[in-house]
Amino acid sequence: MAKMKAARWYGRKDIRVEEIDVPVTGEKQIKIAVKYTGICGSDLHEYLGGPIFIPVENPHPYTGEKAPITMGHEFCGEVIEVGNKITKFKVGDRVTVEPILAKHGLKGKYNLDPNLNFVGLAGGGGGFSEFVVVNEDQAHKLPDEIDYEQGALTEPAAVALYAIRQSKIKSGDTAAIFGCGPIGLLMIDALKAAGASTIYAVELSPERQEKAKELGAIVVDPSKVNAVEYIKEQTDGGVNVSYEVTGVPAVLEQALEVAEKDGELMIVSIWEKPAEIDPNQVVIQERTIRGVIAYRDVFPKTLELMKKGYFSKDLLVTKKIKLDDIIEEGFETLVKEKSQVKILVSPK
Length: 348
Description:
By secondary structure, the chain is α/β, with parallel strands linked by helices. The chain has helices spanning 41-49, 148-151, 154-166, 182-194, 206-214, 227-235, 249-258, 279-283, 299-307, 313-316, 326-336, and strands at 3-11, 14-21, 29-38, 69-70, 74-82, 94-97, 100-101, 117-118, 131-135, 139-141, 174-178, 198-202, 218-220, 239-244, 259-267, 288-291, 317-322, 342-346. Strands 3, 5, 6, 9, 10, 17 and 18 form a seven-stranded mixed β-sheet that branches. A six-stranded parallel β-sheet has the order 13-12-11-14-15-16, sandwiched between helices.
């Protein structure tokens, strides 16, 4: 059987690039030659503190797989083989992948599936490899205007767009984003697309502050000012919607306090451990707290916005590396260098 290179998660701080079998294409599946895959914050969480999504004790019910797992869920590539029941795609098509694994496929509120997981985290292959096989409904054609590097940003951009669309933000509203990693920065662009008038970006890293500023946000450095007091002062009582994108317990409380009376806090982070909030901050101010997980039904809209110049790779992609260098040049670099935003991995 033909072999290919893949980066596989064996345990915390134990990802290995090794040779595995090239996957076989089912009759309702397409085989993709991967071009680029982004390293996601959740990949980094799995590397540093996992398992979170990766099944270790028991195989995932939809893939039948458990660790070791081929990683990578933000990917795109070229269709090189189609199953005999495929009608939507042909060999040579350029596609990006919506990697959600749900019981009934991508139908209904599929991101709320009780066993929700992702290609590249629960099995089913992964983008940190040369080839991946996916179901027909998981692939979306890339418009001609979008190249492979930009296409690899579709998945994280969909996370950002979905978080904004699920919130109560309206054109002309004010917003605050706590944390300007890749998702936080993409959310600034999604807020602009939604018509937000003023966007505050709370971030410690000077390099990420600069990116937020380039995207049009007002940067708040919490090492220099009290972020809550500053934003409340500037907005005469708080923003319409606040977004928490750090996963840091102390920040959750700040993000809640920054929302105006009857305002909303959207929790976008995945958490490694529980965090406390003061319920009176919700009750006495009649605030709403809402969570979002991944996305549903937004990939086409994300690609439409990309065609108009939103979620630009020029601002977000800070490094491109080869699969063989994924540990040192990828994961370890993201740990050490806060200037990095999105690192793209190519198989060769």
